[in-house]
Design brief:
Length: about 300
């Protein structure tokens, strides 16, 4: 109980709750405005819910897509609890359950019917609908992945497949997504199904791109006779760590010292300005890094041992 109270009163908990809500709101808007009107089925639980709602409607059972999404997510959460255990945590439960209410919220705020007009969808073209959906959903997923959360749904199904069929997670997501896209053959022509399959593939690429962009760090290597001043600036002004390497120049055979540090984009700019303003002589190389394992300062005096991915 004390642990729960401590979590609920921490700033980190409320910050992540707000981020998850905003991220899911963005994803819900993508589903509501670009999938539901066009009946475009992407490899996701939202896509499968569109198919299920259409099939049930033909059978005389009329349900909103948002309602079907909620029912399917509840079923998947129960299955995950029974088959996998509680390892998904509160973040997955929260994101999975708020998608449906958020879709209904967009329906209240700005119904897509007012944007569709006489067309068949908001963009009136399945390819434009697909691109808009992938762009918005990928940004939403990248934001959630940054705080180790997810949109739930397909991730839960993939985890179940991973455990019992022994596919890796990436393959499990791909297989589950492809099967969902193919289920659209029951309501859409082959052309739309192919667009859905392409969209599923593009979404994976876009998520990787946005995730790498959000988490990008610079690995900076500096060779300078003024390395002590530079080290002090990195430690005290940027509040970062660094490593010191002693080496020998291949041309001059002189002994040199190299500093290596990992910085955010803003910190790298500050370091570069410092080097130029001080008039130091230096040789510097820098490359992008998208994964960090081990300790990383998240704010002054606080470190995270989580992987930045």
């Amino acid at each position: 109980m004390n642990k729960i109270l401590k979590t609920l009163t921490s700033g980190k908990f409320w910050k992540e709750l707000i981020i998850m809500t905003l991220g899911m709101s963005f994803g819900a808007a993508a589903v509501y405005y670009f999938l539901i009107p066009s009946k475009l089925v992407i490899g996701s639980i939202s896509g499968f819910s569109i198919v299920a709602a259409e099939v049930l409607g033909k059978a005389g059972i009329v349900l909103k897509v948002s309602t079907v999404i909620l029912i399917i997510n509840i079923i998947l959460l129960v299955l995950a609890w029974l088959l996998i255990g509680a390892e998904f945590g509160i973040k997955t439960v929260y994101t999975a359950l708020i998608l449906s209410p958020l879709i209904d919220l967009w329906d209240k705020i700005l119904p897509y019917q007012t944007l569709v007009g006489d067309g068949t969808s908001v963009m009136n073209d399945p390819w434009f609908d697909l691109l808009c959906f992938v762009l918005m959903l990928s940004i939403s997923q990248a934001i959630l992945f940054r705080i180790n959360a997810s949109t739930g749904g397909l991730d839960i199904l993939a985890k179940i497949v991973n455990k019992y069929l022994h596919f890796d997670i990436g393959t499990s997501v791909t297989v589950a997504g492809a099967l969902i896209c193919l289920s659209a053959l029951s309501i859409n022509p082959v052309r739309m199904v192919i667009i859905g399959l392409i969209g599923t593939w593009i979404n994976g690429l876009a998520v990787d791109y946005f995730t790498d962009s959000l988490n990008k760090r610079k690995r900076v290597c500096i060779i300078s006779d003024d390395y002590e001043k530079i080290r002090e600036f990195i430690l005290k002004d940027l509040e970062r760590g660094c490593s010191i390497y002693h080496l020998q120049g291949g041309y001059s055979l002189e002994e040199k010292t190299e500093l290596v540090t990992l910085l955010t984009q803003d910190e790298y700019a500050k370091l570069f300005n410092f080097l130029k303003n001080q008039g130091m002589k230096y040789f510097i190389t820098a490359g992008n890094v998208s994964e960090i394992y081990g300790s990383w300062h998240t704010k002054k005096g606080v470190e995270s041992s989580e992987k930045i991915n």
